[in-house]
C-alpha cells in the first residue's frame, strides 16, 4: 500500500519519468498500478523495467515545476435583448486576453444575431467559434450547472428582462438562469448587461434584488465624453468597462491606451488656453 502511494505521488511530479526506473524485483502489481497515473494525462507504458511516457521529448527534458494555475474562466451568456455587437466584441476581447470562455446562447439571443450583426459573422456558429466551449441553454445537466465547476465569474450580455426576472427569482429552468444562480450562490462575480428602455417598476425591482444578491447590473449606456465617432466606439468603450467589472486583473491592459477612462478636466490646459485667447 505504501509503495503504491509513493509511486502515485512520484507519477504526479512533472518530469518524474526521467529519473525513475523500477528495479526488476518490484512486483508487477505495482507497475500495473502505476500505469494508471500520470500528472499530465499522457499515456504511460512500461518497457522492461523503465517507465516511459508518450510526452514529447522537449517536455520530458523540462525540469520539474509546480503545476501551472489554470487560465481565467468566464461564462458568457447571450440572451434576446438587443445588443449582439456587445456580445461579439466582448468575446473577441476575452479571446485576446486568453480567457477560457463558456458560451450559452439563448433561443432568442440566437434569433436576433442576424438582424444586429453583419454577415457572415452573424450566426450562432460564428459566436460559438469565438468561445472555447458552447452549451445549449436547455442542457441543465452541463458542468456549469454545478458550483463544483470552478469559474471566475459570469456575464450575461445582453441580458433580457425575462432572464433578469428568472435570475432574480432563482427560477433556474434553463442553463443561463441556473449558471447565474450558481455564480451568485458561490459568491462569484455576476455582471448583467441588462437592456430595456424605459424601465417599469418590475424591471427596477428585479435589478435592485439581483444587486442585493451580489450581482452587478450594468446597463449599456452611451458615453459622450469619449467623443465616439461611430457606434463601434461606444460598443468598445462599454465592453472595456464590462471587462473591468469582471475583475480579472486585465484593467491596465484593456485600457492601455487610456480609452474610456475619465481623467478629470484638463483645468491647467483650459486656463492657459483662456490666458492666450
Ligand atoms: C429584435 C428583438 C429585440 C428585443 N429587445 C429586447 C430588449 O432590448 N430587452 C428585453 O428585455 N427584451 C427584448 N426582446 C424580447 C426578448 O427577446 C424576449 O423577452 C425573450 O423571451 C427573451 O428570452 P431570453 O432571455 O431567454 O433570451 C427583444 C426581442 C426581439 C425579437
From TrEMBL:
The keyword Iron appears for this protein: no
Keyword hit for Mitochondrion: yes
Annotated FMN binding lies at 80-82, 106, 160-163, 195
Q: What is its EC number?
A: 2.5.1.129
* Flavoprotein domain segment(s): 72-240
A GO cellular component term found in this entry reads:
mitochondrion
Kindly list the positions annotated as binding dimethylallyl phosphate: 225, 241
Which keywords has UniProt assigned to this entry? Flavoprotein, FMN, Mitochondrion, Prenyltransferase, Transferase
The subunit structure is:
Oligomer.
Q: Which protein, by its recorded name, is this?
A: Flavin prenyltransferase PAD1, mitochondrial
Task: Name its species.
Answer: Lophium mytilinum
Amino acid at each position: 500500500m505504501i509503495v503504491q502511494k509513493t509511486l502515485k505521488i512520484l507519477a504526479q511530479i512533472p518530469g518524474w519519468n526521467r529519473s525513475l526506473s523500477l528495479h526488476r524485483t518490484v512486483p508487477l502489481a505495482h507497475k500495473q498500478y502505476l500505469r494508471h497515473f500520470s500528472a499530465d494525462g499522457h499515456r504511460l507504458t512500461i518497457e522492461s523495467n523503465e517507465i516511459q511516457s508518450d510526452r514529447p521529448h522537449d517536455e520530458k527534458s523540462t525540469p520539474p515545476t509546480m503545476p501551472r494555475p489554470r487560465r481565467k474562466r468566464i461564462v458568457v451568456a447571450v440572451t434576446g435583448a438587443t445588443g449582439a455587437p456587445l456580445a461579439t466584441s466582448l468575446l473577441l476581447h476575452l479571446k485576446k486576453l486568453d480567457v477560457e470562455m463558456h458560451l450559452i446562447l439563448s433561443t432568442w439571443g440566437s434569433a436576433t444575431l442576424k438582424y444586429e450583426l453583419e454577415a457572415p459573422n452573424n450566426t450562432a456558429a460564428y459566436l460559438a467559434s469565438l468561445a472555447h466551449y458552447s452549451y445549449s441553454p436547455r442542457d441543465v445537466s452541463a458542468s456549469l450547472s454545478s458550483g463544483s465547476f470552478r469559474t471566475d465569474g459570469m456575464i450575461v450580455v445582453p441580458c433580457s428582462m425575462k432572464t433578469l426576472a428568472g435570475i432574480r427569482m432563482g427560477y433556474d429552468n434553463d442553463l443561463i438562469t441556473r449558471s447565474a444562480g450558481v455564480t451568485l450562490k458561490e459568491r462569484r462575480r455576476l455582471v448583467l448587461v441588462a437592456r430595456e428602455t424605459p424601465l417599469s417598476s418590475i424591471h427596477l425591482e428585479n435589478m435592485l434584488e439581483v444587486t442585493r444578491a451580489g450581482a452587478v447590473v450594468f446597463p449599456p449606456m452611451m458615453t459622450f465624453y469619449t467623443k465616439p465617432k461611430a457606434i463601434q466606439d461606444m460598443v468598445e468603450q462599454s465592453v472595456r468597462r464590462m471587462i473591468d467589472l469582471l475583475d480579472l486583473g486585465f484593467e491596465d491592459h484593456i485600457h492601455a491606451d487610456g480609452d474610456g477612462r475619465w481623467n478629470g478636466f484638463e483645468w491647467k490646459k483650459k486656463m492657459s488656453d483662456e490666458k492666450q485667447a
